[in-house]
Amino acid sequence: MLKREEVKQKLIGWGIEEPTEEQISDYLATISKETKSAEDRANRFKADSDKVKDLEKQINELNNAKLTDEERSAKAVEEANKRVLELETTVKTMQLQKGLAEIGIVGEDATALVDEDGSLNIEKLGQIIGAREKAAVDVYKKEALDNTPAPDDKGNPDDGDDKGDPLTKDIVDRAVASKKAESEAVSIIDSYK
């Protein structure tokens, strides 16, 4: 689970200059809610899966009474393989959505990132990361423009002493946050290869 400081850095990276404790708590609550929701859906799928298994067993018993031993065996193997594939896909999807929720990708973004076969949609992940990076750059450019001092009579910026420039520190902080977010995205992608 994300720590408060990690959430604060994410929010800063997304353009919120000074995230409040309430914003951090809201973000953590959202992630917790999405993670719990994914776990609840997984539990419902498991319960439904158990009911389906029982019904399939009853149907198979009725159908198998008419089949030879070889036909029954072949059919049982086919059905078991089909069901295993379905359950593996469901579990893979739930695990991926839970992992995405833990790193702050929730809601429609998380749903869009998971393909029908339960795999990560790399193209969509790239689009989401690109959109977030663009938003952060846009916010940074706006803040940089807002913080640019007005020129003096000669057209030179009148910014006085450049030592300890908060804008320079801000640039370094954002670069570090961006690199960390990029590293997290790469590790997620690598874990699903």
List the main descriptive attributes of the protein structure presented here:
76% helix, mainly alpha, 193 residues, 0% strand
Class based on secondary structure composition and strand pairing = mainly alpha
The number of domains is: 1
What are the low-pLDDT stretches, counting only 5+ consecutive residues below 50? none
Strand content range? under 5%
**Spatial gap, N to C terminus:** 23 Å
> Major sheet: size, sense and barrel closure?
none
Give the strand tally: 0
Q: On the 0-100 scale, what is the average pLDDT?
A: 80
Envelope shape: elongated
Strand/helix succession: HHHHHH
Residues in helix, %: over 70%
Count up the helices. 6
Give the topology, please.
Elements: H1 4-13, H2 21-64, H3 69-102, H4 107-113, H5 122-146, H6 166-191
Overall description:
The chain has 193 residues and is mainly α. The chain has one domain (4-150, 159-191). It is 76% helix and 0% strand. The longest helix is centred in the N-terminal third of the chain and has 44 residues, at 21-64. The relative contact order is 0.10.
